[in-house]
Amino acid sequence: MPIATRSAKTTWTDSLAKGRGVIDGESHGIEGVEVTWASRIEDPHGRTSPEELCAAAHSSCFAMALGLKLAEAGLVPQALEVEAAVTLEEVGGVPTITRSKIAARGRVEGLDEAGFSALVAEAALLCPVSRLFAGADVVVDAGLLDA
User: Fold this and answer.
1) Is residue 142 pLDDT above 80, yes or no?
2) 21/34 Cα distance (integer angstroms)
3) Are residues 76 and 104 both part of a single domain?
4) Prediction pTM value
5) What is the reported pLDDT for 117?
6) Are 36 and 95 in the same domain?
7) 130: domain range?
8) Residue 36 shares a structural domain with residue 55
9) How many helices (H) and strands (E) are present in the chain, helices listed first?
10) For residue 109, what are the contacts with CB-CB under 8 A and spacing of at least 6?
C-alpha cells in the first residue's frame, strides 16, 4: 500500500530544440515552472530542468532521512545543508542521468565528524530517492558545519 503518491504535469509545445514546457504540481508547490532543452544544456535563464528537479527531490529527501537518523540517535541538528548535483551525460549516444552527488553538512551539538559521517551513511541507505537512483552513481560527501 502506498505511503504517498504525488503528481506533476508538464505541458509541452513545439520541437525539442525550440519548444518549452510548463510544469504544474498537484500541490501547487510548483506551478507554472518553465522547462526547455536549452535550460538543460545551456544557461537556464530562470527556467528549470529535469536534472534540477531531480536534485531538488534528492536533496530534500536526503535531508529528511538524515533528520530521522539524527532523531533516532537522540540528536537535534542546529543546521543541515544537503546539496545534490545531478549529472546528465551521453551514454551510448543517449542522454542519461548518470550521477547524483550529495554533499551533506551539519551542525549538531555533541556529534563529531565520524559520528556524523556514520549517520549520513545510514541516511543514504534510507533515502527513497537515493534508492530510486540506485542504477546511477550516487556519491555522498559528509561534513560538519563550523559553529
Assistant:
1) yes
2) 6
3) yes
4) 0.90
5) 96
6) no
7) 50-144
8) no
9) 4, 6
10) 75, 76, 78
